[in-house]
Amino acid sequence: MSAWKEKSPFEAYPVALCLVGACGIIFIATDAGLLDGRFSGLKAWGRAWLPGFATGELWRPLTAMFLHGGVIHVLVNGYALMALCPSMEARVGSARFAAIYFGAGISGSLCSMGWEHASVGASGAIFGIMGAYLRLARVESGSFRGMARHPVGSQLLGWLALNLVLGFTMPGISNAGHLGGLLGGWIVSAGVLPAGGGAARGLILPVVSWPKIAAAAAFLLALAAVDLLVVAPRQDATLARRAVAAAGRGDSAEAAGLARRAQEARWNSDPPSVFQASRRAWESGHAELALDLFLAGFPPALRPQLAADRNRLRVEFLRMVDDLPSESPDSPGR
Description:
By secondary structure, the protein is mostly helical. Helix content is 68%, strand content 0%. The protein has 18 helices and no strands. It has helices at residues 9-12, 14-31, 42-46, 50-54, 60-63, 71-92, 94-113, 123-141, 144-149, 151-169, 175-192, 210-231, 236-248, 252-264, 271-283, 287-296, 303-308, 310-320. The longest helix has 22 residues, at 71-92. The radius of gyration is 23 Å and the shape is elongated.
């Protein structure tokens, strides 16, 4: 009998149990309408959403890991957590397991934000644990070919292939979040579970590799930099949110410039969030900015004729303003 089975669950894998419990409790708070509805906006507030992240809400890559889009979503992820995480935590220790889990989850969220409008779910972190298992199989077998024949490696590769097929054929699944988590788990595990060389080849050393931990941190910072410096300046919803913030500071020139850029943006277009920003601008008393952002939410082919007749644009806006989203729509799951 293995050593961890001789311990109680809370002694053998306390972090894994706490993660499952946290996901369940937060799901009840956000989806089941308990606590008098006081947490009804938590999902929108905490999901992985680039417009929020790019305007200072830096907690989103972390909080998104504990939010789920529905009963099936949280049950599937809860099952995967209990299937994969206890044995990994018992094998490598709670601290190393937590580093892999949270590093992979943040990696998945950062990758997802660059490709999807928004996402929630623990599966980026779960895929990271699979990435760590695959790396351990690679170390133990001595090669990638051996990893594919390894008992654990072969099962996980089949599971990964199935999930990729589902991700490309079913809506609402974040392949970017899954693959980002998988890669993050592999990279972080290289730092906290370094492989030996020479006589120790094929073994995991009982130490950490600080240079590889630094490389993993640099990898996460690079993902964040791509989101903030490359994707966000080209995404309509982020530009729209920044325009509303600039108007709130009294900088009407910057707000107008950002609204024009939102109209020209093409990357990862998110019309519901643009319309949400338009409604917020209107409610804040910035009527002209609201019209510019309202225009940015329409498909590019319709914008020229709407822009040519400002009065018509105003009439359409006033007709639709009460129906514009005040909160963003549901997020894809991970």
